[in-house]
Design goal:
CATH class of chain A: Alpha Beta
Strand order of the largest sheet of chain A: 3-18-17-12-11-8-7-4
CATH superfamily of the largest domain in chain B: Nucleotide-binding domain of ferredoxin-NADP reductase (FNR) module
Number of helices of chain B: 5
Distance between the termini of chain B: 37 Å
Helix content of chain A: 25-40%
Strand order of the largest sheet of chain B: 4-3-7-1-2-6-5
CATH architecture of the largest domain in chain B: 3-Layer(aba) Sandwich
CATH class of the largest domain in chain B: Alpha Beta
CATH topology of chain A: TIM Barrel
Number of domains of chain A: 1
Oligomer: heterotetramer
Shape of chain A: globular
Structural class of chain A: alpha/beta
Order of helices and strands of chain B: EEEEEEHEEHEHEEHEHEEEE
Largest sheet of chain A: 8 strands, parallel
Shape of chain B: globular
Number of helices of chain A: 8
Strand content of chain A: 15-25%
Number of strands of chain A: 18
Strand content of chain B: 25-35%
Structural class of chain B: alpha/beta
Bound molecules: flavin-adenine dinucleotide, flavin mononucleotide, FE2/S2 (inorganic) cluster
């Protein structure tokens, strides 16, 4: 059975990866299963300078989902390279580094610094962040800004470049096209939906940051729809994510058009989720007599 | 050894209108838990509630462990309704633990309300050495008091409504105890309870120069250090309650 | 205790209404509680010409939510006036008629026909529908189109005009402002999020229509966030909805800035949901010693 | 009279690896259900699964009613794990019912698999008059067969694998029965089962000019006619299974 897939020039042994920010730098999960089983590990989003993140509370549970406002806390690219990469290099899996910036300059600097680091196989660019230069607009909600920042990063790296799209937009296919035209090798769909919860006793937002990102099974229908739309709009591989808890969920994403999938919030609930999902996908293929996982891709578009 | 395991409910005993004592049998592969550590417990079918809930080790038993919990919201309400034989999806033991005091120190253990759940096994391990300050809202909420008395050197009880012991909080009781003492370092404090109580402990710790360990609480998603959701502010930046905690030094927290 | 609120010139005895499409024409629920208890009944969306709707399957359950693709099936405004209004007039509640069109002309015709009908107290305009004239864009996702269609409808009616916003947009406050500037007396926030689900056995979308509208508790965090944003953007009353199951949920919406709330999917699960939620709001006010429900409005905005 | 009520589980008896017979006690205020009607049953805490599930009246009992169900997905899996004493949130009886045949007609009742749940009480009410065509995949899945035999005039059994009765579907059995008969209107058909079976019945109904009533299934949200979710296409436009159905005339459906 052939489970391998390609994300641009990057060969993954199977289509199951982890979603950035839900798998730490891999270490925390190593005791629960062999990370070498994964198609790829995508690490927590990094920036050139370390970031402290938001004050607590940072997490609120919602119906079949959760809001997070971690505030992109991270140890910075330098420390990551020195403290975390040696560990990750010991596994036979691909390492994809998620990164972001507050400005185009920071994005470019991050991409440059990460390129050529031994064991970094690909970059995932998070464009759901506020652009401090341009009056706090979000990079990934305006096709022109998307195009500009992706274009500049494209010039700065030869690593496979995945652009991770925000779902908080009117038409995700427009942003998808802008990213691909600017040089993205693949797209990650979707990041979290912006949401909020209020504590009716204190009458204040439950998160210190007021709003947060909604993830988990609650958002799966939106994520599937967006993967389906992006698949129609562009030709590059899609990494589908948003609420994947089971192999069945992952298969839905593949049929909607994803080449690979990323497991996010599910890692928190079952630390072996990614491995279990991989196992379930294999079982499904066996059961349905399918030899090549790629033959499932986009099948929901037929007829 | 695996910290991801399934536990079977042996008993789920109401010990108060809103509190239950849950006895679990766990697989041998589970590492031995230490006082102060906690478990993430999943009690749901379906995806709501979604996240596991954090509960302290209350007591180790021959076949496994016990958890003492207060019914608070959705998750604990479901848990309360679960019967013997039901299976829980669990992670643990997680986090760090209460460091044992050196021989020459007298451990003062403070528990506010359900905070007793976290320090009970510490009191057990301190085998007759701990002076326990146990506070609750009312007499009825002084759960497991008899058991505490068995293992403590002394138990100083307080209730908000004065229905048992001193009227006031466990922090008031601790202050009343410390005030007449020489303010040197013969003591060492361990505390678990509501935030204001811990804050009061931190103040006394500074004032009397007594080292204090507090068990912190924050909303958690993963329990294993991956999500960065459960941080508290320390003088050394944000720290994760599930990983660098739950037990922290009172002096490192930015209160 | 004063539970009354005003939506433009419309006085409601309390802030609990029903969400369009989830309460039929009121009849189906009359056996479960006295409809006169409601602040308002909002009926299933109507158009000038009756509409057959989409083929089945029209409903899919998702995690803490459901997708629907009813396809705006309705009996048409004429039959509604003759067959359903006489029943609704027997209740001491406000009747708000939700309507839509395939073109600006149809919107205007619908608003004109409904104006002056005895017992119709207000209109709710659903602008989350495709605009057949303009290449199938959705009226409510483009501020210029929103402005145009709302402006034309405003000229056609003197009834209180509520515009119901689509959440499938990058910035809902832009659309909100466009609607208010064009004459909306109030805004309903939010309609359903567009979503999709795939049957992995047949490898086809589960809904015959492929995509559908996501409703229920899953979307509440997004709805609360949008009410919060719209409250900052405009001065008109907001009717908050999206995943309200309990009085606590309704109170969150009021604190986020809503003047009234609409109960939607919850009606399907508990036919007495709207009445129960009203009761729960009263109990909360009593418990917290609040005399006037209006004092809760927007309280989550205070720093 | 209220069609919104709470029922208590009296018994939740496995009658097969994947099927249970659920006995409920219901309040007196519940209107009497008739054969063919159904109930919406809520079995969740939390909001996932969200919607109630539709189940036919299987049988009325002294204290309430019984439901025969097949474990299919999330909701029925939760239901299977519920114990005596648990409370279910229910709506019903809902929808229309099987019209009783006139005196001179012989009722032919067809059940495919779990379809027996819907027609069982009809067979009871027909008190020895019904000729029943009961098909299932295997002998083991011919649930409640002995009870059916008690109330039926005759039971013609079929199984897909031939492990009991005729090898084939209940529709095959019905055709084999009808073929040698004079094709006039002595009969009247009632059917519940998988879609292809009902479609086959519709074809025979036309061919032999026998009136056939079929019980339809569609995904439901409300069960009371409000959401317009459960429609099937008829020659007279879309009709709601929960309101104009579940029992419909085979001739009105666009198959
Ligand atoms: C390290 C640690 C140890 C704990 N030990 C115990 C114990 O031994 N006994 C006990 O009764 N309780 C303990 N708690 C608190 C317990 O986790 C919460 O009471 C429980 O999560 C409430 O869940 P719920 O579904 O009933 O409440 P809900 O309010 O419905 O929960 C909603 C969400 O908020 C979170 N949440 C709510 N209250 C708290 C809280 N106080 N701390 C952290 N998250 C919260 C829940 O986990 C959930 O994600 C501990 C908490 C932590 C962090
Ligand atoms: C009028 C009517 C009467 C029924 N009577 C019975 C009965 O007596 N015994 C019995 O075992 N089953 C009966 N069914 C089918 C039963 O409703 C489904 O098997 C059940 O809803 C499956 O729920 P689940 O959560 O286990 O499955 P899941 O697949 O997890 O359900 C997901 C969603 O799909 C819906 N769904 C899944 N299958 C069906 C189906 N076949 N029909 C309608 N909705 C479905 C569920 O209600 C839910 O909303 C009846 C259905 C209808 C419409
Ligand atoms: C706690 C948390 C932290 C996250 N951090 C990041 C991040 O740093 N960078 C990023 O691109 N996405 C981040 N995400 C988004 C996830 O990678 C993923 O896109 C999203 O959660 C949807 O998938 P899920 O529903 O499976 O979790 C984070 C999500 C969560 C829940
Ligand atoms: C079955 C169904 C039908 C709906 N029909 C309409 C409609 O005709 N017009 C409209 O404006 N909104 C319609 N809606 C949207 C609801 O009014 C409401 O905005 C949405 O469901 C969010 O609220 P909820 O999560 O409480 O259901 C419909 C929703 C559902 C679930
Ligand atoms: S709960 Fe995830 S880091 Fe602590
Ligand atoms: S289930 Fe809602 S109309 Fe039939």
């Amino acid at each position: 059975m052939d489970l391998s897939v390609k994300i641009g020039d990057l060969e993954l042994k199977n289509p199951v990866m982890t979603a950035s920010g839900t798998f730490g730098y891999g270490e925390e999960y190593a005791e629960f299963f062999d990370l070498s089983r994964l198609g790829a590990v995508v690490v927590k989003g990094l920036s050139i300078a370390p970031k402290e993140g938001n004050p607590p509370p940072r997490i609120v549970e919602t119906a079949s989902g959760m809001l997070n406002a971690i505030g992109l806390q991270n140890i910075g690219i330098e420390r990551f390279i020195h403290e975390k990469m040696p560990f990750l290099r010991t596994y036979d899996t691909k390492v994809i580094v998620n990164f972001f910036g507050d400005s185009i300059g920071e994005y470019v600097a991050a991409a440059e610094r990460l390129s050529g680091v031994d064991g970094v196989h690909g970059l995932e660019m998070n464009i759901s962040c506020p652009n401090k230069q341009a009056d706090w607009c979000i990079f990934g909600t305006d096709p022109r800004v998307t195009s500009e920042v992706v274009g500049k990063v494209r010039e700065a790296t030869r690593l496979p470049l995945i652009v991770k799209l925000s779902p908080n937009v009117t038409d995700i296919s427009v942003i998808a096209r802008a990213a691909v035209d600017a040089g993205a090798d693949a797209l990650s769909v979707i990041n979290t939906l912006t949401g909020m919860a209020i504590d009716i006793r204190t009458r204040k937002p439950k998160l210190a940051n007021r709003t947060g990102g909604l993830s988990g099974p609650a958002i799966k229908p939106v994520a599937i729809r967006m993967v389906y739309e992006v698949y129609k709009a562009v030709k590059v591989p899609i990494i589908g994510m948003g609420g994947i808890m089971t192999a069945e969920d992952a298969l839905e994403f593949l049929m909607a058009g994803a080449t690979a999938v990323a497991v996010g919030t599910a890692n928190f609930i079952h630390p072996t989720a990614a491995a279990d999902i991989l196992g379930g996908i294999g079982a499904f293929l066996t059961q349905e007599g399918i030899n090549d996982i790629r033959s499932l891709r986009g099948t929901a578009h037929a007829s | 050894m695996s910290r991801s395991f399934k536990a079977a409910i042996k008993e789920n005993l109401p010990v108060h209108a809103t509190h239950n004592l849950l006895s679990l049998s766990v697989p041998d592969s589970m590492p031995d838990p230490r006082p102060g550590q906690f478990f993430m417990v999943g009690m749901n079918r379906g995806t709501d509630p979604l996240l596991k809930r954090a509960f302290s080790l209350f007591r180790r038993t021959d076949e496994g462990l016990q958890i003492l919990y207060r019914v608070r919201g959705k998750g604990t309400d479901i848990l309360r309704n679960m019967k013997e034989g039901a299976i829980l999806d669990m992670l643990g033991p997680l986090g760090n633990f209460y460091p044992l005091p050196s021989e020459e120190k007298t451990p003062l253990v403070m528990a506010g309300g359900i905070g007793i759940a976290s320090v009970f096994s510490l009191i057990e391990d301190l085998a007759g050495k701990a002076i326990v300050f146990y506070g609750a809202r009312t007499k009825e909420e002084l759960l497991m008091l008899n058991e505490v008395k068995v293992y403590a050197k002394e138990v100083i009880v307080s209730t908000d409504d004065g229905s048992a012991g001193l009227k006031g909080t466990a922090a008031d009781a601790l202050r009343a105890f410390l005030a007449p003492q020489a303010s040197d370092a013969h003591f060492c404090i361990y505390a678990c309870g509501p935030h204001p109580l811990l804050k009061a402990v931190a103040r006394m710790s500074k004032e009397y120069r007594i080292r204090a360990y507090v068990s912190m609480e924050e909303h958690m998603a993963c329990g294993i250090g991956a999500c960065l959701g459960c941080v508290v502010k320390t003088h050394d930046g944000f720290k994760r309650v599930c990983k660098e905690g739950p037990v922290m030094s009172a002096s490192e927290i930015v209160w």
